[in-house]
Amino acid sequence: MTTFARESFIVFNRQLRMNLRNPAWVIIGMLQPVLYLLLFGPLLKPLVEQLGGNAYTWFVPGMLVQLGIFGAFFAGFSLIGEWREGVIEAERVTPAHRSALLAGRLLRDLLQLFVQAVILVALGLVLGMDASAPGIALGVLLTLLLGGSCAAASNALALTTKSEDVMAPVINVVMMPVLLLSGILLPMSLGAGWLERLSDFMPIKHVVDAVRSSFFGDFDTSMLWGVGWTVALFALAVWWGTAVFQKENA
């Protein structure tokens, strides 16, 4: 095992133990998409079935993306608490690579997201979702990459602002247009023409389309756009997070 991998695993192990000692946020993060699926899914089922296809095959991918975005974007709040308690300063005086401090936390966030995604997909299959195993695997992989990008950006934002009072409004400002224009809950084709055209400039919308396409087994141009945006967002967010951890003084 390389030095970087060993240091990342040490940080991951510590972060995981912290989560297991206080699993409330993990449980809450799991319950939110499950409740959406159980309570909101039946309301949308007649509408989606009119558009053609299995309702839960359409709805579960949107819930996966929502899980990857909303859950991961709040990862930075715990980092602010660690910074305030002096944990970040203590980690920075060790010989560990500063990028490993981010990588270990991202591994924790990705593991949590993966467990939540498996639960959500399993519930979708129980409710009647019709999707192939390769399509589900690709959709979950895209969700993990998107969640990793959101978690890395959240950590970078946390160390930049160092304040929950500043970070929370910023996240809310970002989340509102994402939720409304990405087609997570409702097809954008139901909205006005100008709104649908505006959604084309929302990168997350293309990710949602790609995850849905993978579940439906439609590997077309929308899939390529979604994969491209997912990889680009992940690379950009990891670069930003790594840069902040490397240059920021505690």
Automatic annotation (TrEMBL):
<keyword id="KW-1003">Cell membrane</keyword>
<keyword id="KW-0046">Antibiotic resistance</keyword>
<feature type="transmembrane region" description="Helical">
    <location>
        <begin position="223"/>
        <end position="245"/>
    </location>
</feature>
<keyword id="KW-0813">Transport</keyword>
<dbReference type="InterPro" id="IPR047817">
    <property type="entry name" value="ABC2_TM_bact-type"/>
</dbReference>
<comment type="similarity">
    <text>Belongs to the ABC-2 integral membrane protein family.</text>
</comment>
<dbReference type="Pfam" id="PF01061">
    <property type="entry name" value="ABC2_membrane"/>
</dbReference>
<feature type="transmembrane region" description="Helical">
    <location>
        <begin position="170"/>
        <end position="195"/>
    </location>
</feature>
<feature type="transmembrane region" description="Helical">
    <location>
        <begin position="135"/>
        <end position="158"/>
    </location>
</feature>
<dbReference type="InterPro" id="IPR013525">
    <property type="entry name" value="ABC2_TM"/>
</dbReference>
<dbReference type="InterPro" id="IPR000412">
    <property type="entry name" value="ABC_2_transport"/>
</dbReference>
<keyword id="KW-0812">Transmembrane</keyword>
<feature type="transmembrane region" description="Helical">
    <location>
        <begin position="56"/>
        <end position="80"/>
    </location>
</feature>
<feature type="transmembrane region" description="Helical">
    <location>
        <begin position="110"/>
        <end position="129"/>
    </location>
</feature>
<keyword id="KW-1133">Transmembrane helix</keyword>
<dbReference type="InterPro" id="IPR051784">
    <property type="entry name" value="Nod_factor_ABC_transporter"/>
</dbReference>
<keyword id="KW-0472">Membrane</keyword>
<protein>
    <recommendedName>
        <fullName>Transport permease protein</fullName>
    </recommendedName>
</protein>
<feature type="transmembrane region" description="Helical">
    <location>
        <begin position="24"/>
        <end position="44"/>
    </location>
</feature>
<feature type="domain" description="ABC transmembrane type-2">
    <location>
        <begin position="24"/>
        <end position="248"/>
    </location>
</feature>
